[in-house]
Amino acid sequence: MLDARAAFESRKTAQERAADRITAFTGSLPFVYVHAAILLAWMAVNSHAIPAVRAWDPPPFAFLAMLASVEAIFLSTFVLISQNRMQRLADKRSDLDLQVNLLAEREITRVLQAVDAIAKRVGADTPSAKDLHQLKQDVAPAQVLREIERAEAEEEGVDRPPR
Q: SS3 of 32, please?
């Protein structure tokens, strides 16, 4: 898994690496401290609290508001870029989890079939399980998904046609 993650990270484009670095910094306390200092200095200078410096953006700080809006647009874009990349990674992990679970389910089914066959061959008494027959059947992922969707629709009170 570490190799797969390293491979995924190595395939990041320069823009994705930059977006990740920007997102990491903007989601940190140093970013908050830098912004607080800049905002306080801006307001102090432009409110004539520091007489030696000429104000360039008097209250209500229209230029500051415009800069903050533009910054918010760019920062939200960087965050979305990083989130999209992380979602692609999460989707790959989810697909891998599903594959592993399906393989494990198939293996368990084969073991149940083998144990049941051995028990019958040696004439061993086995506890009667109503669903043993079902447990010995392969799982059909598409059928399970349809059943989940049907149950969700039923819970929501929506009548969806079967696929």
A: helix
Q: pLDDT tens per residue, the chain (163 residues)?
A: 778 778 878 888 898 889 889 999 999 999 999 999 999 999 999 999 988 999 999 999 999 999 999 999 999 999 999 999 889 889 988 988 989 999 999 999 899 889 888 988 998 877 666 667 777 778 888 888 888 888 888 888 765 555 5
- Cα(86)–Cα(95) distance, rounded to whole angstroms? 14
C-beta of residue 106 within 8 angstroms of C-beta of residue 138:
yes
Look at the block and give the residue holding tokens 């910094």: 25
First to last CA, the chain: 36
Closest C-alpha to 110, from 100, 118, 122: 118
Whether the Cβ atoms of residue 59 and residue 49 lie closer than 8 Å to each other: no
Residue type at 156 in one-letter notation: E
What are the DSSP calls for 45-67, one per residue? HHTTSSTTS--SS-TTTHHHHHH
